């Protein structure tokens, strides 16, 4: 078992779907030639870095943004370049399964035997990651996509990470 990983989704977690509360800033970006409008909170970066440092965890992206998160998200919230789970685009319903199951499959494989916290907003992610037989010990922190990541989510992750390191 290696050091734990804190996995970050972007849309719905760091970029809430509704106009967020105080502290968020509006950004425009054009990954892969498509225009996106993002709401990002620059306080999230230092908070996530503190979580990782205080618990001995590594931060990584678990988002369809993949390496684009290092270009368009990380610098805007004060994060360094992070490793990422290579999650290919969801092939669609014709392939069977759900979006949550698709992401969970790739997250479980990437984490291997490392314990992980996953900040995710997909409504079925909890059941999907639990169904992955090779998923390491984990905590899925369910984030409301309308409000995004909060201090309560970070506190829950810190508590769990400290408990597993004893």
TrEMBL record:
Lineage: superkingdom: Bacteria
Pfam families cross-referenced by the UniProt entry: HAD_SAK_2
Protein name: HAD domain-containing protein
Organism placement in taxonomy: Bacteria, Bacillati, Actinomycetota, Actinomycetes, Streptosporangiales
